[in-house]
Amino acid sequence: MSGSSRTSLAGACGPEPVVPQPSGRVGTVRAALRVLTSAAILGATAAAASGADRVNPYPGYESAIYADPAHWLCHPDTDDPCDHDLDATVVTESGDTQVEQWQAAPAPEFDCFYLYPTISTDPTGNSDLVPGDDQEVYVVRQQAARLGSACRVFAPVHRQVTLTALIAALAGTPIPTDSALADADVLDAWKHYIANDNGGRGVLLIGHSQGASRLITLIRNEIDPSPELRDRLVSAMLLGTSFQVPEGADVGGHFVNIPLCHTGQDIRCVISYASFRATAPPPDNSRFGRSRQPGWKAACTNPALLASGTNVLHAYLPTSGASLPIIPHGDPPAWVDPSLGVAITTPFVTLPRFLEAECSEHNGFSYLAITVNGDPADPRIDDIGGDLTPDWGLHLADASLAMGDLVSIAESQGAAYTSRHQTATADDDGCAIGAQHDPFGITGLLLGMGLLAWRRRARAGRSS
């Protein structure tokens, strides 16, 4: 960018620092110290401003509900289910096992906002705001906690339509529900998060089943029409639903401005799928993967392709085998031949090269077809659970089947978002120093402070 003011620290970046050019080695060191100190301070100022200068779409908003940390399943300021006990045992085809330790990101640069599926067994049509250990707490660990290795996780408790109400409706004996109440809670939590916790950071939204449907409503009403909030969107992972796009297009159905993701580095886009076994495609009465109106279709984005460029999934499955702990289940599956004497003590297992996925279309449905590569000749388990009835497919396992891929995508999209956003911020400011592209940043500030202290000590030594 020769000839541009952006090659200097002048103009919008502040006054041009005066750098004396004394002769000799000492003068060179002094000049370098001044440059490093000035650049570090300017870099830190730009880093702080990059988030603080963002417009708050909900100025002064504070929720009477979500100001209370008790109404968040996961929140960076609390010790909660998203913080620990997420180790997994890797089980290979040969029966070898190894514990994979999970670690939270030490300084995540973006956030994740998660809504859980229909899980509450409260007796009323809508749940209360008290999460159950075998309900909301259990499912957030399966579907969102692992993202903490990439982002800060926010998961609001909300008054969803209950599993009790769903079962009653399926049985033909519906009970009163209030879907608007659930949407109002989600909007309240979102506004409180943006106004008080987000600080201009990028945010990835993820939800499953009812949670995905609530996110579609939130995004359609609040984010899709807002350039400011769209700019903060890392991506939206809408799992186990029928997110709609026009035939032959990737935007213009549910959303006007937010398209489908095509690579793991795409941002401000949607990932969506509903999973069925490749050998059992959705029947005519399935609610997932279907078109909602003529000319539209359900989106299918293969998380394995986005994460690794292959069809091989990276699943994290509950060691107990319980897709839903409220559904009766027997002993934990034998993930490896018992004759090998292997004891799996971690809460999760992961099975390399065991599952493959491919987006398929059948009889008007668009879905993620799952192939299980079980081999009776090896000591590893030959199949997975997660099935309900044929019309539900592998709905209970939608997130678990691709959890490792979703984490990888979150990491790559988060990095792409941070990089592109800081580049845009630098361009908008007419300045080449930003929170991420400044080679000094906060580290430079600390370096500059150390150099200043060194200079003071050196001066004191010379004067004594």
Shape: globular
Give the averaged pLDDT, no decimals.
84
The major sheet is characterized as: 6 strands, mixed
Please list the strands of the largest sheet in the order they lie side by side: 1-5-4-6-7-9
Total strands:
15
Secondary-structure-based class equals: alpha/beta
Give the count of structural domains.
2
Distance between the termini: 48 Å
Helix-strand string = HEEEEHEHHEHHEEEEEHEEEEHH
Q: What fraction strand?
A: 15-25%
User: Helical region count?
Assistant: 9
| Cα radius of gyration in angstroms | 26 Å
Contiguous runs where pLDDT drops below 50 for at least 5 residues:
1-50, 428-464
Which percent range fits the helix content?
A: 25-40%
Write the layout of secondary structure elements.
Blueprint lengths: L23 H29 L19 E3 L13 E4 L5 E4 L9 E6 L20 H8 L8 E5 L6 H8 L8 H20 L3 E7 L1 H14 L3 H6 E7 L4 E3 L23 E4 L1 E3 L18 E3 L4 H6 L8 E2 L29 E3 L4 E8 L2 E8 L30 H27 L11 H23 L1
Parallel strand pairs: 2-13, 4-5, 4-6, 6-7, 7-9, 10-15
Antiparallel strand pairs: 1-5, 2-3, 8-11, 12-13, 14-15
Helix pairs in contact: 1-9, 4-5
